[in-house]
Amino acid sequence: xxxxxxxxxxxxxxxxxxxxxxxxxxxxxxxxxxxxxxxxxxxxxxxxxxxxxxxxxxxxxxxxxxxxxxxxxxxxxxxxxxxxxxxxxxxxxxxxxxxxxxxxxxxxxxxxxxxxxxxxxxxxxxxxxxxxxxxxxxxxxxxxxxxxxxxxxxxxxxxxxxxxxxxxxxxxxxxxxxxxxxxxxxxxxxxxxxxxxxxxxxxxxxxxxxxxxxxxxxxxxxxxxxxxxxxxxxxxxxxxxxxxxxxxxxxxxxxxxxxxxxxxxxxxxxxxxxxxxxxxxxxxxxxxxxxxxxxxxxxxxxxxxxxxxxxxxxxxxxxxxxxxxxxxxxxxxxxxxxxxxxxxxxxxxxxxxxxxxxxxxxxxxxxxxxxxxxxxxxxxxxxxxxxxxxx
Length: 391
Ligand SMILES: *Cc1c(COP(=O)(O)O)cnc(C)c1O
Description:
Layout: H1 8-21, E1 38-41, E2 44-49, H2 61-74, H3 89-102, E3 106-110, H4 113-124, E4 129-134, H5 139-148, E5 151-155, H6 160-169, E6 175-181, H7 193-203, E7 206-210, H8 224-227, E8 236-240, E9 250-254, H9 256-265, H10 267-270, H11 277-291, H12 296-313, E10 325-331, H13 333-345, E11 348-353, E12 363-368, H14 375-386
Parallel strand pairs: 2-11, 4-5, 4-6, 6-7, 7-8
Antiparallel strand pairs: 1-2, 3-9, 8-9, 10-12, 11-12
The structure holds pyridoxal-5'-phosphate.
Residues 112-114, 117, 138, 140, 181, 185, 210, 212-213, 240, 242, 250 line the site of pyridoxal-5'-phosphate (PLP).
């Protein structure tokens, strides 16, 4: 720094220069067809391991047909918030079918996963609440806690002993919430929901589980809570239509009083125009597709395990991944961009992930394994990542 910044404009420009000098500058890559198995970027055809369309269903007829029907019947916009005139009947159908799928009394669809976490946390928690949150939880959870004004208590990633210690420390705080991703978005590991649930019951804490990356994959698509048989013991299940389900939007599921409460108090639910009809149609199509393809998640995980095992054998650090999300830890912010470029030369687009999305010194390539990758493509991925060792 060393000099006095003249005014706010100068300060903003200076901050941008600093971001660039640290290798943290973000620009937005041009893409045709962001969710397809192949994308065209900069005139080049690339295998797409950067999107969260894990099941590759975003272009399936089951989704596009429903989207088209809704679009033609209802037009492009919902025109208002759901509390005014934006609550067309397709919403009711989707929520009823989703509640059935999740085995809960209630379901509420929200515009995005980001907004769902804001709505849930900011309405359930307040100044008198202590919210215990995994250090690697998604940014939307952190923002929800900030917005709620609650006491924000972060525990070390997946360290339930640390969580227990903190719960003990705050024993006398009456209102407690534990919130966690079920599958962590940048590490691809799973939360220890069994122990978290046990601790929540012991200390009388409410539980919120974000299944954004588990929906469509674990527990026959229902999520990690279902895979572990914990669905009845978790208070709030949140998940998205925007990742494995190949569409857009989010849901929360739980007892009816929970969804009632968020419908009444969730500002990120109330004060926003509801999703356009075509999106709700696509969500319904995706959910129905998932119901008739219950083993797709397991098949995806098998493919991911093949890739991960091969990379581990070659000496790569894939953190705690046990899912379709495979981080390849590089560390340095410049080296990771170089690695991303080398993989593009080999025809593969990966997520190049740097701080502050991940902790300092843990920049990484993020491989999203997809169900539609064939044997040759999986081999090509492994082979190409291996070659980074010689770069
Ligand atoms: C992507 C993601 C969200 C946000 O969902 P959007 O629908 O993209 O807004 C929330 N939580 C987690 C864990 C996520 O990975």
